[in-house]
Amino acid sequence: MPKHHTFLDLAVVNAPYMDRIAAELERVARSGRYVGGADCSRFEQELARVTGTDFAVGTANGLDALRLIFRAYIELGRMAPGDEVIVPANTYIASVLGAADCGLRVVPVEPRVDTMNLDTSLVEQAVTPRTRAVMTVHLYGRACYDSTLAEVARRHNLIVVEDNAQAIGAEVTVGCGESLQRRRTGALGHAAAFSFYPTKNIGALGDAGAVTTSDPELAAAVRALANYGSDRQYHNIYAGYNSRLDPMQAAVLSVKLPHLDSENAMRRTVAGVYDRMIDNPLVTKPLYDDGALSSVWHQYVVRVDDRDGFRRYLADRGVDTAVHYPVPLYRQPCYDGRLWHGTPLPVTDSICRTVVSLPVSRCTSADDAAEIASIINDYKI
Ligand SMILES: *Cc1c(COP(=O)(O)O)cnc(C)c1O
């Protein structure tokens, strides 16, 4: 029997933290404080510090973090319903639901095939007089931000919103010459959304999310909107939502966040083994590193023409895989052909037709990755 390589087992992922998580959950349970409070503020401060922003505001989940950002910009008068937001065509559907829900028009831009992330060289031609913002999604953990994007945003006065659900801890080199510096995703644009969904690189034991920003007005508006639109008790300046970070989840996240870099280093080791060892003309590897950008390898995604055959071949040899994502968001039944009608998105279509995610988590050791790579190298049609 070959060894079974599981794709992801969250109990294994959380096992090293479990004693402390259990103690923290009991502490919060006994505290009598179940909404808001010191556990939430402490996590928010830690997240802002780790990210390199002035503010972090906890939210109920990552989708709400995005929704709250766009709604806050509308409440502050910096965007209006009907305005356009440029978004990557190749992403998880949650990336665009928040903006669309606020009445903004999402305008797709195709990805680069080697990074599968937004092709920043195509952004400028999508700008119109109604464009107010561009959203970058650091898909699969790979930072998607460069001087081209920064320049276009500056020239057209666009707000840059980051969907950082998959890339907490990833870094980008920004600036030039003397002012060269490393900055983390979540601190690259004007506002960023984080998700702590259990499968993310830092995952809660349920739903959780956050917004980071260094804009005090935006932070205050997001915080108020997430709490019924109230800036102080029984005083509602906006018709808001209830989307608060649960203090139980905040306490869990405060146990895990200090280990962000070692968690990401473990993923990088596995990705490095795949990158060095996978060598098969039928399997296209993702770009490993292109200098200025880093990936925290939320997923390690290869492309294979006969995806179903390849996945069956691996499954028969004990290797579990996944697909992120099989159906482009614009082809989802909820849009029923109404989103981006008539816009051909061939790169997005081809990526969604061919992508396969290999195991990359605490469940996969470097030796496991080497074994998976050698199985992949024996794959033929
Ligand atoms: C997970 C995810 C979200 C949504 O986060 P939730 O916490 O599940 O609401 C948004 N965008 C991307 C890219 C994601 O991977």
Low-confidence stretches: none
Structural class: alpha/beta
The largest sheet has its strands arranged as 1-9-8-5-4-2-3
Distance between the termini: 23 Å
Provide mean pLDDT, rounded. 96
Main pleated sheet: 7 strands, mixed
Q: What gross morphology would you assign?
A: globular
Helix content: 25-40%
**How many H/I helices?**
12
Estimate what percentage of residues fall within beta strands.
15-25%
Give your account of this protein's structure:
By secondary structure, the chain is α/β, with parallel strands linked by helices. Helices cover 35% and strands 15% of the residues. The strands form four sheets. The protein has a seven-stranded mixed sheet, sandwiched between helices. A two-stranded antiparallel sheet has the order 6-7. The longest helix is centred in the last third of the chain and has 18 residues. The site of pyridoxal-5'-phosphate has 15 residues, from helix 4 and helix 5.
